[in-house]
Amino acid sequence: MSDVIRSDEGSETMIKIENITKTYNKTVKALDNISFSVKGGEIVGFIGPNGSGKTTTMKILTGIIKPDMGKVTINGFNIREDPIEAKRSIGYIADNPDIFLRLKGLEFLELIGDIYKVPTDVRRSRTKDLAEKFGLTDALGSPMISYSHGMRQKIMVIAALIHKPPVWILDEPMIGLDPKSAFELKQLMREHTKEGNAVFFSTHVLEVAEKLCDRVIIIKNGHILYDGTLEELENQNKNKSLENIFLELTEK
Amino acid sequence: MKLYFRLVSALIKGVEPNDKEKKRNKIFYVVMSIIAGFGIMLPMAFFVGIIMYTATGALMQNGTQENGIEMFLHLIAVFSFIFGLNVFFSVFYFSGDIENLLPLPLKPYQITASKFTAAMISESVMEYLVIIAALAGYIIGGNMPLYSWLTAIIGTLTMPILPLIYCGILCMAVMYFTRFIRNKDTVNKITGVFTFLVIAGIVYLIAQSGFDSGKLIDALSNPENRLLETMNIIFPTIPLLTGSLGNGGILNFLMYIAVNIVAIAVFMIIAQFIYFPSVAGVGQSMSHKGKSADMTEKMHQISCSASYLKKELKILLRTPAYFTNCVMINFLVPVFVYLAYLINGQTNFLDSFIYGIRSGNEETVLIFMIGISAVSVLVTALNCIASSGITREGKHFSFIKYIPVSYMTQINVKAAVSIIISGAGMLTGVIIACLLLNTGIKFTIFCCLLSLLSVSFATYLGIYMDSINPKLIWDDELNALRGNYNIFFNMAIAIVTEAIICAGAYLLFKFTPTGSILIIIMLFVILMILNAVSYLLCLRGGVKNINSIE
Lengths: 252, 550
Ligand SMILES: Nc1ncnc2c1ncn2[C@@H]1O[C@H](COP(=O)(O)OP(=O)(O)O)[C@@H](O)[C@H]1O
Ligand SMILES: [Mg+2]
Fold this sequence. Notes:
The complex is a heterodimer of chains A (252) and B (550).
Chain A: E1 13-24, E2 28-39, E3 43-47, H1 54-61, E4 69-74, E5 77-78, H2 83-88, E6 90-93, H3 105-115, H4 120-133, H5 149-161, E7 167-171, H6 179-194, E8 198-203, H7 206-212, E9 215-220, E10 223-228, H8 230-236, H9 242-251
Parallel strand pairs in A: 3-8, 3-9, 6-7, 7-8
Antiparallel strand pairs in A: 1-2, 1-4, 4-5, 9-10
Helix pairs in contact in A: 3-5
Chain B: H1 2-15, H2 19-24, H3 26-60, H4 65-94, H5 98-101, H6 108-123, H7 125-141, H8 148-158, H9 161-177, H10 184-208, H11 213-221, H12 226-234, H13 237-245, H14 250-279, H15 304-318, H16 320-327, H17 332-342, H18 348-358, H19 362-383, H20 398-402, H21 407-437, H22 441-468, H23 477-481, H24 485-511, H25 516-548
Helix pairs in contact in B: 1-6, 3-4, 3-7, 3-24, 4-6, 4-7, 4-9, 4-10, 4-13, 6-14, 7-8, 9-14, 10-16, 10-17, 13-14, 15-16, 15-21, 17-21, 19-21, 19-22, 19-24, 19-25, 21-22, 22-24, 22-25, 24-25
The structure holds adenosine-5'-diphosphate (ADP) and magnesium ion.
Magnesium ion (MG) binds next to helix 1 of chain A.
């Protein structure tokens, strides 16, 4: 484990978001007073159609954008008051993997390792491990500009995992991954939560969430429509497939 | 035609910030535009105008007045050709919108013509200013009739067409006939070296003339100037344009228009035939496969700042567009210095300067020091490493915000990159100059310090200026630098500030009994204060700006 300080308060609730509202350009209300929390040991899926506010929420969680109002706590640290400690607790995969394409894959991982202070030996073994899992070992020495979209996405995944942060925030992480890598990632997400960490990921594909999540949060037009387990959701709507429930919910 | 205008406006808008972004920074833009206008554009236009006015007056005596303006316009044409090469390779073959435009039911000439127009309009703003200023100097100096002004305005707007058509045709021909340039990195490298050579060549030619304007006028008043005759064949629009300014220029003007129309027609016909075949199979960049037995064994931890610094340096050095525009330019300084020394002995001006330094003449030493400071600031602003420090992050700007590294640390690392690269070029130049002038160790160290202080002031100022409104939406690295108002505004502020200081120092020496030592000490103190101010600007304003960028 890298030197992330775990505060006492955060041992239970790893992500806490309270009454967040965000308006773009004073006109587009992307998020309207949303609140939820994610506990350690939980995988939570964030589901919603395109443009519903998933990326916006994740950017607020990671401190990239400032909400109009509301409070974000990550691992017990307020993202505004303790930004460095809060950010150190997060492994984030942005929705666009095209970053520092002039660097080689390995150089990018080195940069991330140095930023999150991952010691040399830990870094070596983790990189080796993860690169093998994702079939990226041979590409580590090439500039990322020569990578396919999927390979770039994989490097982002490795970069977000290399420092084993207590909180994973993954924005549509499955996009562009081949089935094997998607399987590996899901596996990693499960392992990670077993160690008491939290995983919060967004998707607009229902199937991904179905098998993986302990809980789902459904968002539409900046409002949270549902927050609970998928089982409960199915019980509430007997005789309907999940897909239909989802469509009904989000098409209102 | 309607389609053409729509495409052009779509292409121009593509590179401009959207309305919302503009509105937010309206006051900033107005203030900056005024500073840039009065600080750089007007003085430059005025300078060009005066030179043309004087030259025309001098050349009138033996009736060769159009030689001056023609030569000047040819120089502009050559420059716009050189700088256009990179731009046209990029817009015709490597820009991101190609993939979207190609599948549309558009004719090749429609795509190329609209891209040509958009590029010409956005690349030529400064050029228009210089041309109109030169023509104004010529018209006034030559007592031309009133209607020449109208001709001059039309001429200004249309003059860049021919050199850029050459560019466009050359780009298409190169891409059509050669198979080796399949990615923009190669193009950037080749055009970068080419630009460097041409600029060095022009500097060498100017240096050979010994900074002697008399010789230049002599050469230009020769009615049978070989160089000019050749250039008039290469760019036939230029003599036609100057010819149409004087009395009875209507015929020349009609021919000027006709030649331009023919050139455009030729361009469109060529585009129609070779654009599609040449654009097929163009890739974004080379893919080199490296083998990696066990790359991971090479990994080792270093400090966060050092790692960040390495990343910034690697990106600057490996991206050809940055390498040629931001890095190489610094090393023109030592080249200049050495060239200037080589041709000494041929001119009185340099001779007396060198003698002045060696003998410790107060005024010469002061000018030397002021010059070092001025060039340091100019080079740092010009290479735009600092003033594009945030802009270069582009679409992945959010990286700055989500990593657990404070914004000021990141600003400091970005500043270090600028200071290292600008400083390397400047100090090499300064040390070579001091060695050639035999100034002694202490003096040399002093000069280096002065240069570094100036560089770091301009660096922090540049980063602050960039943080106010970085241009984060670009798809080609060259576009991050070209047409970036921040870089331009930063240059304006840096130049104006430095000009005030330098002029102040010199005037103080000339018109008050203040000694040169005291003035140099004051220069040091002022630079240190400016360093503190620009650092504080970053610490207070820059960090806040980064915080509010989304
Ligand atoms: N930078 C921005 N400026 C203006 N509007 C934005 C911006 N980013 C997102 N939006 C708007 O906010 C809403 C939510 O977007 P986003 O969070 O990206 O959705 P999702 O990730 O769920 O697809 C959309 O209506 C989108 O148009
Ligand atoms: Mg999204």
